[in-house]
Amino acid sequence: MPWWRRGTVYQVYPRSFQDSDGDGVGDLAGIERRLDHIAALGVDAIWLSPIFPSPMADFGYDVADYRDVDPLFGDLAAFDRLLAAAHAHGLKLLLDFVPNHSSDRHPWFVESRADRTNPKRDWYIWRDPAPDGGPPNNWISDFGGSAWEYDAATGQYYLHAFLKQQPDLNWRNPAVKAAMFDVMRFWFDRGVDGFRIDVLWHIVKAEGFPDNPPNPYWRPGITERDRLIQRHSTDQPEAHAIAAEMRAIADGYGGDRVLIGEIFLPNDRHARWYGTRARPQVHLPFNFQLIENGWDAAGLREMIAAYEASLPPHGWPNWVIGSHDAPRIAARVGEAQARVAAMLLLTLRGTPTLYQGDEIGIGQVDIPPDRVRDPQELRQPGIGIGRDRSRTPMPWDAAPHAGFSTAEPWLPLNPDWRTRNVAAQDGDAGSMLTLYRRLLALRRAHPALSVGDFRLLDASDGVLAFERRHGDAVLRVALNLTHEAKPLPFGGEVLLSTLPGSAHETLRADEGIIIR
Ligand code: GLC
Ligand code: MG
């Protein structure tokens, strides 16, 4: 049983975890200092959002050198120290691999844009203008506007699925593939335990670059990207073949290295990213449906059943409830239900990924307009994208700047940081942090909760109930997603409740329980 089936992943957003050098931005030495917190939480692996040299147009998702560390975060030696320290804490370490695009400052792109005949020209995606001089097709950047940028120096457009500072690499070029596979080997050789692969379903585009069809469900007020269905710009068969090659590289380092693919697709297409048993692709195609779905028992029940049913026999499920791109769970459902959500995340069948700060229940953070940094928000203001709200610094204690930094942090803290911080919740039996630690400890103690079989159970309206079974061990979970008491769907010994106290004639308002 590989570790990543039993284990849990904790996402660290390096800019906002811990600053060690007083520049208001988190760094690798800071993360190393806080490993005790991560280990004590009871997770098994850390995924670091990008740490590579970057102009930070998209905060590291614009990579200018795939084989080094940005000076803001440290250097390769600091990385090696962090990796060794993580391993000494019993934690795996995953990096963020960004294969779809580089920074426009990457030497490859600098060369590529220099003239039409240089050897790197075909490393990116260059096309002639349409007959009217406009972009080659109608594709829209995920961050709004055309996905094509005209480069007057050479009279062609280049493709960028995200910012124009993030030109898309041409994965149909074997030299690009070889160079990027070498990047994976570079980090595997250094000892990393795997990668989260950024926008993996984007990496190959349809030959001939046909227009994308309109999305009949689009309406003003949702992201401009969704005006079109990304039929020809994403999820191409050739991308699956590349994922299988990436997997072969990972497997070449032994069975313990893991690949997690960032993939947003409906179930049937999503499941294909596991590949086949004979030719597997990623171990875990990220499943974001807990983020995308509303918070009601009937809807979640249906979603979970459909997701489980969509998995290939060799496909291991996974669940994500927060990230640096998504609104905070406690902001979405409120603090009481965020406790229920924690129990759901850690008792469903499949590898959970936790996001930093959710373990102390950080909720809504309003970013003053003059402090907005997220390029996606800046390009499409007012429709509620606002990724900064989930990227605010970790509040560690009640010291100035919450112990995050000695300087003003790059983003504001959560407004309640003086009381909502790690130190304040440590040792408080009723805190969110204690709940997370107990859930993670229970998960480790009971294989039924991690690798056990899964079966939905009947319960009253507003209650989500299921069973986990491993050999003779049977655990049942009942989650009250409403603010009123509900009948208990089953009896037994309560191993954990999201609420204090132990009177269990009913399932209390906003209560989740695990019963043996
Ligand atoms: C992924 C990242 C997001 C980034 C985008 C472009 O979705 O999670 O933060 O902006 O890719 O790289
Ligand atoms: Mg720093």
TrEMBL record:
GO BP annotation list: oligosaccharide catabolic process
Biased composition (Basic and acidic residues): 368-377
SUPFAM superfamilies attached to this UniProt entry: (Trans)glycosidases (SSF51445), Glycosyl hydrolase domain (SSF51011)
Keyword Hydrolase: yes
Domain of life, source organism: Bacteria
Keyword Cytoplasm attached: no
MF term (GO), any: alpha-amylase activity
Pfam families linked to this entry: Alpha-amylase
Domain (Glycosyl hydrolase family 13 catalytic): residue spans on this chain: 11-391
Disordered, as annotated region: 366-394
Keywords for this protein: Glycosidase, Hydrolase
UniProt similarity note: Belongs to the glycosyl hydrolase 13 family.
Protein name per its UniProtKB record: Alpha-amylase
Classification of source organism: Bacteria, Pseudomonadati, Pseudomonadota, Alphaproteobacteria, Sphingomonadales
